[in-house]
Amino acid sequence: MSKVIGFNNAVFWTDHTEILYCEFNNSVPNLKLEQKVIESYIEAIANLCNEKPMPFLIDLKETRGTYTISIAKLIAKNQELEKLKITESYVINSAASRLLIGFYRKMYNDVTPIGLFKDYTLAKDYCLNAKQTYYKKHIETCKQTSLYY
Question: What are phi and psi of 132, to 5 degrees?
Fold first, then answer.
């Protein structure tokens, strides 16, 4: 079952794959994200994840300028999102976006695995593989720490 939450410049959704999809669009180079909007995005993501860690597939192909910087900062440094992210998979179409994302990840010392892709299908495959690996490790950890009587 799909769940979708939409805003003026963003859409967030989940489906049977249990990937959190984030699609941002903005063609105005100097548009900045307001704090209220950022808080709404975080609330939407938390609602869709429902406390379950998921890979994030973030489509930034249709963003320009400072909006891209705001999204990179939001994803990289928010503590609430940190608990929900298995991995971040970005779909981008410019070297500038690649550099900005890399810069903010280093600046905020984010340890979440990341993939940068031009192809949406490859980005989705990366998320599915990361999710499988994450839950396989989680199951093994649970088996090792469980007490059997």
Answer: -60, -45
pLDDT, tens digit, 9 for 90 and up, residues 72-127: 777 777 888 889 999 999 999 988 888 888 877 777 766 788 999 999 999 999 99
CATH superfamily of 3-145: STAS domain (3.30.750.24)
Q: Which of 118, 72, 88 is nearest to 19 (CA)?
A: 88
| pLDDT per residue as tens digits for the range 61-74 | 988 766 666 777 77
> Contact at 8 Å (CB) between 114 and 85?
no
